[in-house]
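Issue 218. Parser rejects a valid record. Input:
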Amino acid sequence: MDQKVVRIHKRLLESDAAGELHITAVPPAAPAEQQARAMFPAVAEALRAAGASIFQERVFGTAGALEAAEAIRAEAYGDLADAVRPARLLSGEGRHGPLAGVQVHAVCGRSRLRVLSADGSAWGRVLKLDGRRHVALSGLSAAGAGAGPAQARAMFELADRLLGQAGGGMHSVARTWLWLGDILSWYGQFNGVRSRFFAERGLIGATRGRFPASTGIGVRPAGGAACALDVMAVVGPADSIRCFQAAGRQRSAFAYGSAFSRAARAASPGGQTVFVSGTAAVDEAGATRHAGDARAQIQMTLANVRAVLTQQGCRDQDVVQAIAYCKTPEVEAIWRDGRADLPWPCVTVISDVCRDELLFELEAAACPGGRRV
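Output the parser choked on:
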């Protein structure tokens, strides 16, 4: 299949020390194998053209599509791939078919990435640059730990151990992505596990709550685990990360039991990155708005995200990656039809949101000064 039918969005942020390349690939509507053969060679070409190394990657699709894509990815990437696998995440089939898309965060420059491993598996990478260590962890899971809450505890402990290899810990985390299968049945339990773990690590208590930005979403990791975790962290001076419990038009989510910040601003290899957490149609008091009205929820969610970006001095053109989570293909159709003028590189995923009445969630990452390639 002609690669030109793949939508490849590339955003580059550069400093004197390094560059960051954010790639978003959305495949054509086709069977999974054809999608993969169109998409992964195009991503590989973008990486090679920039002389970039993969820092973090995730692939969204149905179980069968992810399985079919694995060998095609390996063939297309060749020596671009190391021992760290991408986060492989299950999405319902949407408008584009069984594969929803790929996100790659890559780095360019003379400094080399080091792989972080534990328990016989490679889970992430660290980049040492200008007195900081930038860490990306992907797809951390612990399927053998027991039921969902026990797995959640084990994956946080695994993250802490890996961050320790880079000289940091949970206090070094700017952003988490929490992939939770069957989220509606145990999200409350999950929040309890996270809060207890954060309290033990000093993120709750004397510091009055210093939480990373986060997305907790009903996307099951491939391979059978109940949950998985992606992390972006910076080990370095205290001003490397700023977390905003309240931001834009929303107050702290910790007021209703979720230990995450609405946004975080972190030093990154190419400059600064603003992470906007997973955001939905939730008002200042934490109540769901516009139940049953997907269009109104989408409009409110987008306004909430843009309010955070504006507060952080970011424009639409600064957004380097986004993910839209739609409860059904019907919600996806409303989202796609209403975002024709939105210049964000975005993957759309079919998934549950953390409340049954929420139909849509949106997250974004923005790099002031980044440019379209």
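Fixed in the parser; the record now loads. The mean pLDDT is 96.
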